[in-house]
Amino acid sequence: MVASPLVASDVTKAVKALLAYRSKQGRGLDLDADFLTVQIGLKQAPITPSPKPRLVALPHPLKDASELSCCLIVKAADKPWLKALAVDGEAPGPKVKLTKLDGTRAANRARREETTRAPGSGVETDAGKLVDKVLAFDKLRSSYKQYKDKRELRDRFDVFLADDRVAPMLGKLLGSTFFGRKKQPIVVKVTRPESLAAQIRKATACAHVVLKEGTCVAANLAHTDMSADECVANVVAGVNAVVGDLVPKKWNNVLSVSLKLPESAALPLYNADPTAGAGLPDAPPAATAPAKRADTPAAPAKKPAKKGRARRRAPAKRATTRSPPPRRRRPRSPRPRRGRRRGARGEARAVPQGGEKAAVLGRAA
Q1: Low complexity: which segments have biased composition (predicted)?
Q2: Packing angle of the helix pair 8-24, 228-245 (nearest 10 deg)
Q3: Hey, is 167 helix, strand or coil?
Q4: What is the DSSP letter of 251?
Q5: Are 234 and 205 in contact, with CB atoms under 8 Å apart?
Q6: 300 φ/ψ sector (left φ>0, alpha ψ -120 to 50, else beta)
């Protein structure tokens, strides 16, 4: 295992320089804090990228759980007892016997429409209020079709949670509206109500990291409202957790680590030699010519080329395609002339046929 080459003193210098830069820009009294983003450059891209957010534990949470607004997306059948548990703080009722699956469509449809537990039992829990809204999947699919409705829902809550049974169907439904702002829902198992509170607290306290198809991994590990020591502790712990748990080949695959603000230059924290390490393949050995034997006769020297006018080569003949001969038209056979013609006096006479023609001519003479 390769030890972490990240030096805490270099991180301290970078954090102090970024905080001083922000104060010089006249933004020291802003109500909205800016995130300190860590960028990790990799030698090789991840083999299995996924839009699913990964949780990274930090020694100092980015925000207090009481300041965050959460939305939980669940099945429509389980909304009554989950709303009583997560919003009202009421313990769920006993489990409900579900329909046995026998491979038929009717059984599958009935199973999807059944709830796993009875509504609230009336007993309050110690967890208290966990989320601000419980949204049914059917309501999300029917009432948030347009882009503006999805955008309003995205801006209304800070963190989105989803039941593991409906999470695979949310990618196409939410679209780039949520994925562009890195607000993908975090998967939780609501079928275990005794551990639901711990899952929600972990999701709100940890940083969220997404492994994309490229060679750059970015994560928000601190913000400007924290002290310098808290920022340094979060950056060191977060980078070691991301590289140790999420990056393949760990530090052998890390090329660089830098820290920046949204409007500042990236300050380097670590730079590796790109040609060293196990992340890149070794260079092939140089090819060497075989040694010649002493008794091998020397090759005859080539004759020098004669100087003179270079002989021009005849251009290659192009293959020509002969056009087919024109089609000959069959001569038409003369049609016999039929009809009546006028005589010398203008009266119409019939055209004689055959031997009658000679008699007519003799009579005219």
Answers
A1: 278-302
A2: 130
A3: helix
A4: G
A5: no
A6: beta
